[in-house]
Write a structure and sequence with these properties.
The protein is of the alpha/beta class. It has 12 helices and 8 strands.
């Protein structure tokens, strides 16, 4: 690959959706030589106007820098894009920020290694408009030496938290955070529908919902739960499973009476039911973890 730039501040970005565009803009503003490629070539026009260099082919894009960031729908898209360009992968670091399952990331690490490339798995935990801004962060896993070499560049798009050599680890962290996020949003919508059935507007209820999310008691409960989970001991002197399970049952029945969808509260109630059936009714609510971690 004789055409690769020797500029250490060079990056190739493949995939120019909102996240790819945002990262390209950050690197351009930091004085990087930014090379871009997208399957729909017209998507590159706006970022090229800002100073990026559009590669005509994937081979050209890989040849422009040894530091390559992918921002794609999933890992399957990577195989599609690199089909026929495998020789150009040699000596490249592929930082794949696409979302997928941990096993898919591990498989891709093996596949890239067979073509002479390294994979650093990443997951950016902010939307595109916050990339490169205060509070932005991401998880990374894979070869530590590769991470160390490019850490300064990765930190430009957000705090870079390295979580281990296993390529699947960053994806575990990423999906776990989204698990909390998506479930919390669904819970808010369900709660809003519940009060809405009584004629309460979303705007009227919003301050109370926000107070729950911001509550220090919630934050404290999470910290306490983490200690109990790691120790495997679940004292039930405060909020035990039977008490919390009764509340879960009340939410289900209130939802039924209101005529709204009960899938979400029933799922929560099921966890309490399983935990009680396992003989943990008098344990603290974090003991639900024992029911969750077993696929039964």
């Amino acid at each position: 690959m004789n055409n690769v730039t020797n500029n250490k501040n060079a990056v190739t970005i493949i995939g120019l959706g909102p996240m790819g565009q945002a990262m390209a803009t950050v690197y351009l503003n930091e004085g990087y030589r930014v090379n871009v490629w997208n399957r729909t070539a017209s998507r590159a026009e706006r970022i090229v106007e800002k100073g990026a260099i559009k590669a005509n082919t994937v081979v050209d894009a890989l040849g422009a820098s040894k530091f390559v960031i992918l921002s794609l729908t999933d890992y399957r898209a990577m195989y599609t894009i690199f089909a026929g360009a495998e020789d150009a992968l040699r000596d490249r670091l592929i930082v794949n920020l696409s979302s997928d399952t941990p096993d898919k990331t591990r498989e891709s690490a093996t596949w890239l290694k067979s073509h002479g490339a390294e994979l650093l798995v990443g997951g950016i935990m902010v939307p595109a408009e916050l990339v490169g801004k205060e509070g932005a962060y991401g998880f990374y896993s894979g070869p530590k030496a590769a991470f160390d070499t490019h850490e300064a560049s990765l930190r430009l798009i957000g705090r870079a938290d390295y979580v281990g050599e296993d390529p699947g680890l960053a994806q575990f962290y990423y999906q776990a955070q989204l698990d909390i996020f998506l479930t919390s949003l669904a819970a808010y919508l369900h709660a809003t529908a519940l009060v809405g059935s009584a004629g309460v507007s979303a705007k009227t209820f919003l301050p109370y919902a926000m107070k729950t999310f911001e509550s220090m008691s919630v934050i404290g409960a999470l910290a306490e739960a983490a200690d109990h989970i790691d120790s495997g001991k679940y004292p039930g002197d405060m909020a035990n499973v039977i008490m919390m399970g009764a509340t879960a049952d009340h939410i289900v029945r209130a939802s039924q009476t209101a005529g709204i969808n009960t899938v979400l509260p029933e799922a929560v109630k099921t966890l309490y039911d399983h935990t009680i059936a396992a003989g943990r009714g008098k344990d603290g609510w974090p003991s639900l973890f024992e029911a969750i971690k077993k696929n039964s």
